[in-house]
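Example with several molecule types.
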Amino acid sequence: MSFGVFIARRLAALVATLFATSFIVYGAVYLAPGSPLDAVTGGRPLPPATLRAISHEYGFDKPFLVRYWDWLTGVLHGDFGRSIVFRQQVSQLIEPRIGTTVFLVVYSAVLILLVGVALGVVSALRKGHTDTVILGATAVGTSTPSFVAAIVLISIFTLQLGWLPALGTGSGFSDELKHMTMPAVALALSGVAYVARLTRAAANDELRREHVDTARGRGIPERLVIRRHVLRNALIPITTVAGLTIASLIAGTVVVENAFALNGLGSYLVEAVGQKDIPVVQAICLILVAAFIVVNTIVDILYAVIDPRIEIGGSSS
Amino acid sequence: MTGISVAPAGRRLVLTWLPRIGAVGIISALVIAFLALVAIFAPWLTPHDPNAIDLLHPFAAPSSQHLLGTDDTGRDLLSRLIAGSRTSLVGPLVVVILEVALGVPIALLAAWRGGFVDGCVSRVLDVLFAFPGILLAILVIAFFGAGLKSAVIALAIAHMPYLARVTRGAAIRERRLAYVQALEVQGFSALRICGRHIAPNLVPLIVAQATVSFGYVMIDLAGLSFLGLGVQPPTADWGVMVSAGEQNILAGHPEQSLYAGALIVVTVCAFTLLGERLADRNMR
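Resulting structure tokens for the full complex:
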């Protein structure tokens, strides 16, 4: 199968998955006990005229599939409906918060790629004490939830040292960077530890290979052997795992933004759940899930591109 | 490995497992056993009533009276940590049991029938994979209301695909073995072959997967409680305690959050390490 067909099939799978998940996000409201109107109004006592207006706005007088289709086509045009609580377009409410969440995810992703891979390489090349310490620290790191990392960081860097602000987003790039450092570290921590462990394993695998011995036997300097023969080959599994780890950061923002009182999509999602503002909940869930699926697909394609041994179109599943 | 494997008797199973999980595995298992005992006997172990408020002694320093001190309303921290072990461990346990109850039959069905049924199951699992666990849980909680019950059900659905996918793969390999064909030829029913022969041989794999899953579920469940969407205060729970203590960190009292957070990390670490050792053991 040619590369073009492979890409086309991956994109088709992407669209199908997005379609199915959008159906779950929209359809979930009908699993709730009581009528969907109750779910949308959150059981608030409202005058009948308002109820009729809401009922009409949300199309409860139409069949389910028609409503779903209307919602989906609206979403594709950037229209997520109106917030129950603020009586405002959901897209207007969400838009100013997207930047914070993207900043957080990108910052964490950079930390994972730089620190995670570096720790893993050091661990693989420095046998003995250094390796043991990194291995132990990363075992604890992978088991540390982001909100626990958050309180530890705040206790140390805000309470004890007074170096970094604990809460809020900040204004201007350098101030924002300062405010976002602890959230990004908290969000990235388990990913950094996981990628470090994987990098260590991948580099160790390569170090045992015959081509590395051959290169050394030919008198190639150790530095070049490590760079060209060990790291370059180890990069293939690292890219996949790092990519998937970065994708999982997207859902992780929900917890971290709350721990640090950041004004992003994740903290708004939890706020909207509390307010029973269903259109907002649906919109943010859909955006986060869609971002997760898209990043996963990109990683999938990237993996096929960088690994020449992958037989494209080989049986999946 | 020989083609025909016979599930060993329970006692032998434990005896052959122990030495092979290594020192780390044994220590992890002991930590888990200790935490389980604390959770079981929690009502008899708490030195104070975990919910008894003493407004005259908020943020008390550790003393012989309060070994770990008190929280902002004067409740004994040690007692709350011990009492909290119950909800914090039972929640993930129920999730994992539901995962196995849902995932294993689905995996066996897909592996046994193959073809169209397998295709359908795989697609459904793919879609569930596309949902990060905590997002699915938040979506369910938005409609069913906050609480441990909604969180547990949602996380069981969200984490089940991982278990189902691994079990399905192993069941497909098992199905190709000669003894399964021999049983089929002898006219045993599919239900009997799956339930009495294939499933028992998959038990070590399922146990390893469930153990690893416990750690991940605990992170998600404690995270939901931290967000105020899972276990509700004043019930003592480690996730709730991290969240409740967060407000007091900047006032100089990070103890509650740190103790509860440390217990979560230790528990997750023990389950993850033990699960990895058990999974490695299966590989050999």
